[in-house]
Specification:
single chain, about 425 residues, alpha/beta, TIM Barrel, Sulfite Reductase Hemoprotein, domain 1, 2 domains, 8-stranded parallel beta barrel, 5-stranded mixed sheet, about 45% helix, elongated
Length: about 425
């Protein structure tokens, strides 16, 4: 692989076990997400956790903001296990986390990890005491902690002190630079306090989220240079639709390419009535596109042009992609290695045959003025020419047969 396209070596971080999922160390970058249901609504939260896990979220975070939410956590965990979703649940605590964990020990036990925001865990003389209370609870229940700094709720006392110190310098930094330093210091000082309290290094993860791309890159680059804790990446308040996807991908891709980041979340604002699993799909596609992980078979499809007036290839590409994504939870168990499959759906003869030959199985559909015939290539060789009104259905059947032949037990036995 050319050095310009090869990911740089991963930053070496301390591995953390989060409910059976390893984050950091030599483990692949972990995909996680967060529910937007009221956690006290057990049915809705179980349904969304299950949907996120089925979509590929390896860790799911839920809000624990009041007694009713904390009381619901053990029941949510139990219901998910009964449904076959052994997904680690992370409790997101703000303001009264120390009290909720103390008053609801079953919640403390059911969660796989606690997330603390040092900017609002407590104020003034209560801040360290309440932070320590949560850390001691984590030690008691043998749980890891993510110390999650967010510039929207940054420790104002720390920021004010650093601003005052900066003004006394002969060549002061800009306000943005001081704010970034406050974010990094908040994470590092909190991690130091957690360790002094007795929490092991392999129980600590850090995050430092901001909403501007360049600030995020600067903060995490600095944080990675100053510690070896596992790092959770995410652009907070990324936005809705393509804006959120582009902003998150731009920021996280640069950091991941530098080897920074052990787990990621794409924090998308869902469209009204939108599917929460979209953020999982984007995270997977980012990691897969960059070559860090393989989650789904790759479907190559041409962008279309004046030669491809038919929409058949677009519809077929979408249908194949949707079928693969829908079937992957079952196929991943039934057909080990199927995520490595490469399918090509091309719209005319210009690049169609060549691209199809590079795929495991590919089809070149007829474009404008071409004869109504579609050559299909399997493992680089022409295997068939499809004709008729049901070309798409014929090709779908060939893809299914190819998966069974190559990745099914019969295909593996034959290969052995």
């Amino acid at each position: 692989m050319d050095y310009l396209s090869a990911p740089l070596p991963r930053r070496r971080s301390v591995a953390v076990n989060v409910g059976g999922v390893t984050v950091g160390g030599d483990a692949p970058v972990v995909v996680q997400s967060m529910t937007n249901t009221d956690t006290a609504d057990i049915d809705a939260t179980v349904a969304q956790c299950a949907a996120l896990h089925k979509a590929g979220s390896e860790v799911v975070r839920i809000t624990v903001d009041r007694d009713e939410s904390a009381a619901a956590v053990p029941r949510i965990r139990e219901r998910l296990l009964r449904l076959g979703h052994d997904v680690p649940l992370v409790g997101d605590f703000h303001y009264i986390g120390h009290k909720l964990l103390a008053d609801h020990p079953a919640c403390a036990e059911a969660l796989a990890k606690y997330r603390i925001n040092p900017g609002n865990v407590g104020f003034r003389d209560k801040r360290d005491r309440q932070f320590i209370d949560i850390v001691e609870m984590a030690i008691r229940h043998d749980k890891p902690v993510r110390i999650g700094v967010n510039w929207g709720s940054l420790d104002q006392e720390l920021l004010t002190r650093l601003m005052d110190e900066n003004q006394k310098k002969g060549f002061p930094m800009s306000a943005d630079e001081v704010t970034r330093e406050a974010i990094v210091q908040s994470a590092l000082l909190s991690a130091e306090l957690a360790e002094q309290t007795g929490l092991a290094r392999d129980k600590i993860l850090l995050s430092a989220k901001v909403s501007r791309v360049q600030d995020l890159i600067a903060v995490y680059t600095d944080l990675a240079d100053r510690c070896d804790h596992a790092l959770h990446l995410g652009l907070t308040e990324a936005g809705m639709g393509s804006k959120g996807i582009v902003a998150s991908s731009a920021a996280l891709a640069i950091l991941l390419q530098q080897g920074i980041g052990d787990t990621i979340r794409i924090s998308l604002t869902p469209e009204p009535g939108g599917d929460r699993t979209r953020e999982v799909q984007v995270a997977q596609e980012l990691l897969q596109t960059m070559g860090f992980r393989q989650f789904l078979p790759v479907v190559a499809a041409c962008p279309g042009c004046g030669r491809t007036t038919s929409t058949v290839f677009q519809e077929l590409a979408r249908k194949i992609e949707d079928d693969l994504r829908r079937n992957m939870p079952v196929w991943r168990e039934k057909y080990p290695g199927v995520e490595e499959l490469k399918v090509a759906v091309m719209g005319c003869i210009v690049n169609g045959p060549g691209e199809s030959k590079h795929a495991d199985i590919g089809i070149s559909l007829p474009g404008t003025g071409e004869s109504p015939a579609a050559p299909v290539f399997v493992d680089g060789r022409k295997a068939a020419t499809l004709r008729g009104d049901d070309i798409a259905a014929q090709f779908e059947a060939m893809v299914t047969d190819y998966i069974e032949a190559r990745f099914g037990r019969g295909g593996k036995d034959a290969a052995a």
